[in-house]
Design a protein that fits this description.
heterodimer; A: 18 helices; elongated
């Protein structure tokens, strides 16, 4: 490989690091995308230039055209609520590319003039194992998020034992291959085991844990890419793989902390399953139900309002109505902020994107640690489609399955309105004592409809009717 | 396979890039975590470089076919990833900024 292309890769890698650095604030973030695009263009053109004239040019051009024909519509038409699915698919594609390149390299080296070194075999094995398991794992995650597959965790007796055994066999086969790279009968076995393991790994994981799993798969896909860099001797791939791996790892750590869980617990704990029993309690407590008219009157008099959106808001497509409500209150001189829990939505940062799409200015969106001290000085907390992340039992009740999980302290606000379809417990089936508090009033109904009614009531009041 | 590529140097690169990544990404606010993940997806499309090399130097049908699929998958990530990241970031507006 000549010096020129190495320099081009160096420039590309620098631009990739800058690209991520510029993601640290919204005003510079788009520059980050541009830096990434330029870096990618430099790397790709430098590669094609060095190997010119390439063999199979027709194949290359056709594949790039096909990839663009699939990629562009996916980017243009994908609704923002479907971002998690799209990201999961993206992990699958990245991992598949790494796995196939690894497979191809193995068979080329096997039939080639040079002997496959142990280290190279290790890198190929790592790439193929991680690549194929991330491929099927991400497809499973996609299926669960898209609703093609059941979101419930599927568990059976001895599940972890089966998974560990399978993974153990794959690792043994891999170690054998590293010791004896020519033992080619083992290679297809590793591929099949990796594919199956990817499926089995995701089966017991419930919908609520998807944000962590997506982040973790991001990390795996990154590591598979880094292994590909070792196999092909391309440092730029190692750099990007390491960046991706670090990014996925950080995000999954944040998600785990936000749910007060450990990695092992998410991967092997089957969260939803454990809690099914803890849900039911005696029900002589009083729920105070309110109506939009009354709520609008209280909101009218409020000086400080915090809106707490959850995924339920997005499901009801109520984002735009919520923004209207926020605009209206702001116009009346009320201070409106949004409290965003780290696991609001279906992936890290998802809620922020959904609200940005509805034109809510990003400086009104506050992270949990920033907003929590403010609830005590807040007149009204309006919870729309959020449940577990507002559960005060997480702070006080040691027997609660979510005890210790950081939550938004909505119960400290003067009045709490909870917009909810019914009293049925949320996905995790955990009882929420917030709903029985004296200062809590329930607004039963569809999030969009209720918000719409609130806006209408406020408009009537503003017009002096 | 590049004979001059030093494996230990590769590990150095991996280790340092990992640390740089950790420090840079730690500073990305929660608000931008979805665009961040979608941007890292786009960057992972750098596998395109590897897949193109495989196909361009391939002498076997197997390598050509596998490489072509890998090129397609990587291109989807590159093109779609950058595009949708920018689409998301265009929506992030502060107070007083006009929607374009």
């Amino acid at each position: 490989m000549n010096q020129g292309v190495q320099v081009a890769y160096l420039i590309a890698a620098t631009l990739f690091v800058l690209s991520l650095k510029w993601m640290s604030a919204p005003p510079t973030a788009r520059r980050g995308v541009l830096a990434g695009e330029i870096g990618m263009a430099i790397a790709v053109f430098a590669t094609i230039f060095t190997i010119w004239p390439p063999r199979n040019l027709g194949w290359i051009v056709a594949a790039i055209l096909l990839g663009s024909a699939i990629g562009v519509p996916m980017a243009v038409f994908m609704p923002m609520t479907a971002m998690p699915q799209r990201i999961a698919l993206s992990h699958a594609f990245g991992a598949l590319a790494a796995a196939l390149v690894g497979t191809s390299e193995y068979y080329s080296a096997l039939n080639g003039p040079h002997e496959l070194s142990h280290f190279m075999m290790g890198a190929i094995g790592f790439e193929v194992l991680l690549g194929f398991l991330t491929f099927t794992g991400s497809l499973m995650a996609f299926g669960k998020l898209q609703g093609v597959l059941p979101q419930r965790p599927l568990t059976y007796k001895g599940q972890n034992a089966v998974n560990f055994t399978l993974f153990g066999v794959a690792v043994i086969a891999l170690v054998w291959l590293v010791a004896v790279p020519t033992a080619s009968f083992l290679f297809p076995l590793v591929i099949v085991l990796a594919l199956v393991f990817g499926v089995l790994l995701i089966i017991p994981i419930g919908g609520a844990d998807m944000p962590t799993v997506i982040s973790l798969l991001n990390s795996y896909a990154g590591l598979a890419g880094a292994a590909m860099g070792f196999v092909l001797g391309l440092p730029v791939l190692i750099v990007v793989g390491a960046l991706d791996g670090a990014s996925g790892l950080i995000l999954s750590m944040i998600m785990c902390r936000a749910m007060n869980r450990s990695f092992t617990n998410v991967l092997f704990g089957a969260f939803g399953q454990v809690q099914a029993g803890a849900a039911v309690e005696d029900d002589d407590r009083i729920v105070r139900s309110s109506n939009p008219e009354e709520a609008a009157m209280i909101l009218e008099a409020a000086q400080r309002v915090i809106i707490v959106p959850g995924y339920g808001m997005a499901v009801a497509q109520a984002q735009h109505k919520v923004r209207e409500l926020s605009d209206m209150l702001t116009k009346r001189g009320c201070n409106v902020q949004f409290a965003i829990h780290p696991v609001a939505g279906r992936m890290p940062g998802h809620m922020n994107v959904l609200l940005a799409e509805a034109d809510v200015p990003y400086d009104l969106l506050k992270e949990m640690d920033e907003i929590n001290p403010e609830f005590a000085q807040t007149d009204v907390a309006l919870v729309i489609g959020a449940n577990d992340v507002t559960n005060p039992a997480a702070r006080t009740d040691e027997s609660s399955p979510i005890y210790g999980m950081p939550v938004l302290d909505v119960d400290k606000a003067g009045t709490v309105f909870v917009v909810k379809r019914s009293m049925s417990p949320g996905f995790a089936g955990i009882d929420n004592p917030l709903y029985y508090n004296e200062n809590t009033m329930m607004l039963f109904g569809d999030a969009k409809q209720v918000t719409n009614d609130l806006v209408a009531e406020l408009a009537r009041a503003a017009a002096g009717l | 396979m590049e004979e001059s590529f030093n494996l230990v140097t590769g590990l150095f690169v991996f280790m340092l890039a990992g640390f740089v990544g950790f420090e840079v990404i730690r500073r990305v606010p929660q608000m931008l975590h979805t665009p961040l993940m979608s941007l890292t997806n786009a960057l992972s499309g750098i596998a395109l470089v590897g897949s193109v090399t495989i196909v361009a130097t391939s002498t076997s049908t197997l390598a050509t076919v596998l490489g072509t699929i890998a090129i397609t998958a990587s291109t989807i990530n590159v093109v779609g990833g950058f595009w949708i990241t920018d689409r998301m970031l265009r929506m992030f507006k502060g107070r007083g900024e006009k929607k374009s």
